[in-house]
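Lab manual, section 2.4: Encoding a predicted structure.

Procedure: take the sequence of the chain (116 residues), apply the prediction step described in section 2.3, and record the output as structure tokens. A sample record is shown.
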Amino acid sequence: MKIHNYLKAPLKGEIIHGGEGLCPHATVFPGGEIDAPVQFINYTVIPPGCSFGVHEHGNNNEFYVVMAGHGVYTQDGEEAAVEAGDIIMNAPFASHAIRNTGDTDMPLLVFEVDAG
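Recorded output:
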């Protein structure tokens, strides 16, 4: 049995994919612990005014679960407002980014799944 508590994971401030500002970040489940095509499960907090920079992945889907706050998600140049409760799926090979446009933290659970 494996149980990891994302709220107790030690966070390290990181610039995510060349984005703006330091985002507290932790890998909750590294891919080696998962017997499925999931590459990782991360917990990241995007402070107000901060962002993940525009980046791409390969043949996989990366999911952002917005747990609080609101911001703007960009995929292949198209923008959409996002808020608490939204689950965003980054398409395989798509460029994508997310930024916090609110005045409170925007915590995310992030996981990546091979598309096959």
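Check your result against the sample. Residues 48 and 104 are 6 Å apart (CA to CA).
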